[in-house]
Amino acid sequence: MRFSLQTASLRQLVLLSFFLALIPVAVLMWQSHKALSGVSKHAVTEAESSISSVRRAENMQNLVVDIERAVRQYAVIKTDALARVASSHLNNYQSLLPLVCNNIGQPQLCQQQQLQLATIMSDFRSLSSTQLEPILQQFRLQQQQLTQQIWLMLEKNLQAQQRFVVDSQQQLAWQTVALVFLTLLLVMWASGRITAPVRKLDKMIRAIGQQHQFPDEKLTGPRELTELGEQLRWLSSRLQQLEALRLILLRHASHELKTPLSSIREGCSLLSEQLVGPLNTQQLEVVGLLNGSADRLSVLTEQLLDYNRLLQQAKPEPDWHSPQQLLSECFNDHALSLQQRGQIIELHCPLDTIYTDATLFRRILDNLINNAQAYGSQNSPVWVKLYQQEHQLILDVGNNGNPIPTALREKLFEPFQRGTTPRFDAVQGSGLGLSIVADCARLLGGHADIVDVIYADVCIRVRLPLLEEKPA
Length: 472
Hints:
It comes from Rheinheimera baltica. This protein has a 5-stranded mixed β-sheet with strand order 2-4-5-7-6, covered by helices on one side. It has a two-stranded antiparallel sheet with strand order 1-3. The chain has helices spanning 2-7, 10-76, 80-104, 107-123, 129-209, 223-272, 281-312, 323-333, 335-340, 358-375, 433-443; strands at residues 319-321, 345-348, 354-356, 382-389, 392-399, 447-451, 458-465. It has 3 domains: 2-193; 224-308; 314-465, Heat Shock Protein 90 (2-Layer Sandwich), CATH 3.30.565.10. It is built from 11 helices and 7 strands.
């Protein structure tokens, strides 16, 4: 059975689960039918018995009246016909009395009535009306008691029938609860057989997307899902091969590019300084173009390598740092490019310490400052604000310049996406700056977006989680 479940298709497993869930429902329906049939049969039996008892009581009551009339008439007119009529009524009553006595369970009362009946049957021919009157009166009184006992018996039977119905309902209710619980267990078991491999598939997909170690455990379950698991395993292996080739290519490309690029920059520097001989104006212009292209190629190469290093960093290493020190080091590195465009930093940072990964935080700062310097207006300030807001660490970097359209804001955080606003420096952007900011913020558990503020035309805000505890 276990082997067949593991090798069954998803459709077969769903049908089997549906069939298993229907079994308790079928049992419940059968139990309900059985209980209803029992109640109906018991009700019919009790109804027939009650009708028979009522009929006997009415017949006996009528016979008592007929016996009194016939006996009194015989006492007045002593004829054989009246004697036969009275004997007939007495015999009929005698035949009904044992049937009633067997049902009501009153032996003493039945015995007394039997004695009274025997007295009347033996003595009604010889006794006078005056002598018969107390005997008939006692006979009628005891018959009324018998009738009352019959009605009490019917009431008890009705109560017993009600208890039987209530017991049947309770038993059916407990059976319903048990079968519903069994159905729930079967449904949970069946859903577990289906959802367990789905969760494993989700784990495999997340491992592929987050570049984690692919699970070694083999997927078990429906045939379609196991085949999909094997395809994901093949995809993971293929992606690992491609990732290895990409890293090898980047390492070789960086090594092969840096060496000739350094030579080109040194040669351009020698030519521009005219150390190898004087150059005319046109030659100096060509050398300037070569030098600018070499600088741009160097910047683009460094950005590409930096983005590649970011992709390889799987887990941040946070620690307590001084935000003033991190900000000062970043501003010093960008001081020359900011000074060339007449831009100054307006800093607002009331925090003493922050808990973050210094490398990732520094990459965020570098790219945001570089972005503000490249796209900000000349002789305009660059606003940098680092503060706490509720349970978040907020970093705002704003500048004046052309506002970014709302439709392009989310797209700019994707790799190799550039806006329509031109840069004011000599380097042509690669579209990786804001993508690196977003990826670094994501690694730190936060996110980056472009917001509207009143003091700047463009403001990029990075929200990072903030720990409440302070270092010892």
